[in-house]
Amino acid sequence: MESNNRPAIPAEVRRRVLVESGHRCAIPTCRYIEVDVHHIEPWEKVKKHEYENLIALCPNCHRRADRGEIDRKSLRLYKANLRFAHDRFSKIELDYLFKFYRVVNCTPYPSCMRLLYERLIEAGFLEVREGNNGIIASVENGVDTTPVRFHVTPKGREFVESLGVDEL
Ligand SMILES: [Zn+2]
Fold this sequence. Notes:
Largest sheet: 3 strands, antiparallel
Number of domains: 2
Bound molecules: zinc ion
Helix content: 25-40%
Strand content: 5-15%
Order of helices and strands: HEHEHHHEHEEEEH
Number of helices: 7
């Protein structure tokens, strides 16, 4: 429960959390218009107002979350879904990122595949390495089939981990 002797949530952070859910309750089946900002990990534990840990909930869902009827993992999933909807990446791009995140040794892909991952590469979340094994540049029918491997960068790993969701 909220206590009165803690600092207010900074206006910028609060706004970002509210905009994320369109100023409605973040529970997709609720979407009520009157909202509070809720700490996914309780304030008493984290003592910080961090965007990653905040979610907009209506008073009713807020009470249910406080009682544990909506658990933290579910809240993180709801938040992650909102981010998929609003961030610069599509769900498919994030699926690719999660896939590469889990793969330790990615199999070589033809170089032309990098088009699919271009925005992840530009964001610095994915990097392209030589697929090598002695195979040098090759072009078939105008399509670059040189083998390359895709690796999630430390920045990309940080992003995946910031979602706080380990099985998507
Ligand atoms: Zn609600």
